[in-house]
Amino acid sequence: MVKVGIIGSTGYAGAELVRILLNHPDAKIVWYGSRSYKDEPYASVYGSMFELVDDKCLDDDMDKLAEAADVIFTATPQGYCAGKVSEGLLQRAKVVDISADFRIKDAARYEAWYGIHHPTPEFLPEAVYGLPELFREKLSGARLVANPGCFPTCSILTIFPWVKAGFIDPDSVIIDAKSGTSGAGRGAKVQNLFCEVNENIKAYGVATHRHTPEIEDQLAIAAGRPVTVQFTPHLVPMNRGILVTAYAKLLRPVTKEEGKELLDSFYKNEKFVRVLPPGLPAETRRVKGSNYADVGFIIDERTGRLVLTGAIDNVVKGAAGQAVQNMNIIFGLPEDEGLNMVPEIF
After folding, report:
1. What is the per-residue pLDDT across 188-242, written as a single tens digit (0 to 9) for each?
2. What pTM does this model have?
3. pLDDT averaged over every residue in the chain
4. By CB count within 10 A, which of 32, 163, 181, 251 is most buried?
5. Are 79 and 101 in contact (CB under 8 A)?
6. How many Cα atoms within 13 Å fall on the side-chain side of residue 309?
7. Rg value, the chain, Cα
8. Is 57 a catalytic residue?
9. What is the pLDDT of residue 195?
10. Side-chain half-sphere exposure of 201, counting CA atoms within 13 A
11. Domain 151-314 has CATH 2.110.10.10
C-alpha cells in the first residue's frame, strides 16, 4: 500500500487527486495538506467528501510529511516545491510536483517566463518530465517528477508524432487552445467570477503564456533541434476541459491513410491516448472526468496545412490523473490502476 501525502489538497488539482486516490486499491492518503484550511475537516471544504473522508486538513510541513508518506504530491503555486525539495527529503519520499518548478530544464529560462527565482536548480537534471507516453522508462523509480501542465499535455500529445516523423515544419506550428475555468485554480479572482466568464470567451497570455517554453522544449526533442511555436490560450465558460487546435505546414503531401497509420503506430500501446478517425475533430465532452486524451487530424489539401485537434480533461489527464499515472509507474503498479474512469456522457 503506497502512503500518499498531498500538499494543496483543497485546490482543484488537489481535490481531484483525493477523488481519484480514494478509489485506488493500492494507495492510502495519509496527509490532506492545506495551509488555508488547517485543522478544518476536509469534508467541510468539499461537501462531496461527506462520510468519505473523516480527516482534518494538516499543514504543509513537507519534512514531517516525508516521514509519513512514500510519495508527496505538491499541487501548489510555482516556487513552493522548488523551495522545499532537498536531498534529505528525496531520500525519504518520492515527489510528484504538479507545479511548473521542474518542467523547464534551464533555470534562467524558467525565471524569465515565471518571474521568480529558482532556489534549487541542482535538481533540474534529475527531475523527469512526467508524460508517460513519451518518458515511461525514465519514470520507473524516479525520485522527482515534473508533472506536465494541462495545455502542454494536450498540445504535445497532439503534435509530437507529426514532428517526430518529419511530416510538418515545427516552426510553422500555431496552437489555438481553449480551457475551462478550473484551469485558473480555486483562488478568488475577479476575472474568474461567473458574471465575467459566463457568455464570454477571451484570449489571454497572448505571446507571453508560461506554458509556451514547456511545449517548445518537448517538441524540440521530437525535432532534434530548437523549436519556436505560436501559442494562444483562451478561457471558455465551462468547468473542465482543454481543446487544442493546431495548424502546421506539411513538408510533403500526406494521405489520410498515412496520417492514421502514423498515430496508430505511435500510440498503439498507450491506453490513455485515443486516436480518432481521420477528419473527426476532438471534443472536450468525450474525455470529461477521465484520464483519456483524444487526438485527431484533418489534412487541408487546399492550403497544404495539417489541422490537428486534441482534447483532455485539464484536471485529470492535465493534472491529477497524470500525477497518479506517474505514481503508478514509479512504484511498479499497473499504470491504469485507479484511473479507469469512463468519460462522463454530459
Report:
1. 678 878 888 899 999 999 999 999 999 999 999 999 999 999 999 999 999 999 9
2. 0.97
3. 97
4. 32
5. yes
6. 16
7. 20
8. no
9. 87
10. 10
11. no
For the chain, give the percent of residues with pLDDT over 90: 95
| CB-neighbour burial class of residue 137 (10 A; exposed 0-12, middle 13-18, buried 19+) | exposed
Contact, 293 vs 157, CB < 8 A?
yes
Find where cell 489534412 sits. 299
- Measured CA to CA, the distance from residue 340 to residue 271 in angstroms comes to 10
- Catalytic residue (one of 57, 150, 154, 195): 150
Confidence of residue 269 (pLDDT cuts 50, 70, 90): very high
**Which residues neighbour 29 within 8 Å (Cβ) at sequence distance 6 or greater?**
4, 5, 6, 18, 21, 22, 55
280-286 contacts, C-beta under 8 A, 24 or more apart: 281/245, 281/309, 282/243, 282/244, 282/309, 282/310, 282/311, 283/243, 283/311, 284/178, 284/180, 284/238, 284/240, 284/241, 284/242, 284/243, 284/311, 284/313, 285/241, 285/343, 285/344, 285/346, 286/311, 286/343
d(CA 274, CA 271) in angstroms, rounded, equals: 7
Mapping DSSP onto H, E and C, the string for 13-75 reads HHHHHHHHHCCCCCEEEEEEECCCCCCCEHHHHCHHHCCCCCCECECCCHHHHHHHCCEEEEC
CATH fold of 2-126 reads: Rossmann fold (3.40.50)
* pLDDT at residue 188, rounded to an integer: 67
